[in-house]
Structure formats: C-alpha cells, structure tokens
Amino acid sequence: MLIDTHCHLNFKTFEGKVGLAIKRARRAGVEKTIVPGARLDTSKKAVELAQKYKEIYAAVGIHPIHAGKLKFKTSKAKNELKKLAENKKVVSIGECGLDYFRIKNNELRTKVKQRLLFEIQIELAKELGLPLIIHNRNASDDLISVLKPYATRHKLQAVFHCFSGSFTLLAWALEHNFYVGIDGNVTYSKHVKKIVKQTPLKNLLVETDSPYLTPEPIRSTKKFPNEPKNVKIVAEKIAEIKGDSFLKVAKQTTKNAEELFWKK
C-alpha cells in the first residue's frame, strides 16, 4: 500500500476527473491520498472531496503566495480554517509556510504578511492537535526562525512538503523528527536525490503534488497532468537511490504517513 500525502485533486485541472484519478491510483496500489488546500475555497473543496471519496483525506490551509491577497484580518482566516478543520476527515493544517521566490527587492512587507499568516496556522495546528504541511521556497533561514519555538516547546509535528531546501534546514528538520516529503522531481533533480540519500527512511513521505512535478519518464512524454498513481514512481526511485526494495520503501513511508496524519 502507498499513500500520496500531497496531491491537489481540488484544483481545476481535475474538475470532473477526480473519480477516474482515484481509480487509477487504486490500481497502482495507492489506497489513500491527502488533498491540501491553498486558499479558503480550495480548502473547502478538499473537505468536500474527502466527504465524497473514502480514499481522500483533506488538509486545510492558505499557501504563503496568497498572503498579500487576503482582504480580511488573519484572525478571520483562522476562524474559517478552524470551522473546516472540524470535519473528521481533515488530518492536517496546510499547505502553509514561506515562499520568497517571487518577492522582488527582498520586500519586507510581503515577508511580514507571509510570516503572520504562517504563524496563525501553526497556532491553529497546535490548538487542534493536528500536524502541519509546510511549504518552503527560498526561505529556509526564516522558516527555522518561525518554527523553532514551536518545535522545542510544543513538539510540533510536521512534514516539509516537496523538500528542496538547504542541507542546514534538512539537518534541523531531522533533529526535530520532522518528516521530509519527496516528489516526482526526485527522478531528475540531483539535489533532491542527495536529500533522499541523507534522510533516514523513517523520516520520508512520498508525494506527487499533482497536477505538478510529473516524474520521469512520463515528464519527457509531456503527458500532463501528474496524478496520484505516479507516487509509485517516486517510491521506486527512492528505493533505487537507497538500495532498498520497493516493498520496504512502500511499507515504511506508509507507516510514516499513518504515524503523522492518523496517530491518535
């Protein structure tokens, strides 16, 4: 059994195609998928899909790239997310975090907004006893700064989604027993392959980030979008890099996902 711990079946790409994607995933041995929100509307959609399909579970959150577009107070956003998180099939808060990739001239105002939005979601996760799905792009140092007090005082549980950060961040994440999400880019990124080599199997989760990050060899054929069934390719690549069997990787990453998202 495999678990795709991060796929956006709630995005427009999959409109009218979710049922088919789930069937294909099941045939590939993927028995559960976690669908994270990126805004309030896609968080709501994730919950709706989780209620409709037994294989789908939801995460609710607001992606950092939307921090500057919020037209209301972050306290209201927290309340809206909290309402959604009351659903029994919500297993995490996210996707949330920091993303400095498109910030021009190191703009402080946008960084402050992102940090505030991230902190209210960390507080919500702490309040509800849920793990976090963390997004990081070009913000490793600030991410550690925000997370450090929560990791040490509150034993926060989290996964660093689609890990491509610094080795300093990786060492810090492993020190605090966080999980590391590996996606289809492991099939073509030298950096991600090094991340896999340095991360114990007990800390790895497999993801697709569908409809993005299609793995090779599908990527070269330009057959898009990516979908949950392809998480099997991710697990196979991890097995190849680590010199382990596919079965061992599938069993351990599934156990890891169960411990993070469904541990009571």
Overview of the structural elements:
This protein has 264 residues and is an alpha/beta fold. It has one domain (2-261): TIM Barrel (Alpha-Beta Barrel), CATH 3.20.20.140. 45% of the residues lie in helices and 16% in strands. It has 10 helices and 8 strands. It has helices spanning 18-27, 40-52, 74-85, 108-128, 140-153, 167-175, 190-198, 218-221, 231-242, 246-261, and strands at 2-4, 30-36, 56-60, 90-99, 132-137, 158-160, 179-182, 204-206. The chain has an 8-stranded parallel sheet. Helix 2 runs parallel beside helix 3. The chain starts with a strand and ends with a helix.
What's the arrangement of secondary structure elements?
Layout: E1 2-4, H1 18-27, E2 30-36, H2 40-52, E3 56-60, H3 74-85, E4 90-99, H4 108-128, E5 132-137, H5 140-153, E6 158-160, H6 167-175, E7 179-182, H7 190-198, E8 204-206, H8 218-221, H9 231-242, H10 246-261
Parallel strand pairs: 1-2, 2-3, 3-4, 4-5, 5-6, 6-7, 7-8
Structural class: alpha/beta
What's the average pLDDT? 94
Q: How does CATH name the architecture?
A: Alpha-Beta Barrel
Total E-strand runs: 8
Strand content: 15-25%
Distance between the termini: 21 Å
Question: How many whole angstroms does the radius of gyration measure?
Answer: 17 Å
Q: CATH homologous superfamily, by name?
A: Metal-dependent hydrolases
Determine the oligomeric state from the structure.
single chain
Low-confidence stretches: none
Strand order of the largest sheet: 1-2-3-4-5-6-7-8
Helix content: 40-55%
Shape: globular
**CATH class assignment:** Alpha Beta
Number of helices: 10
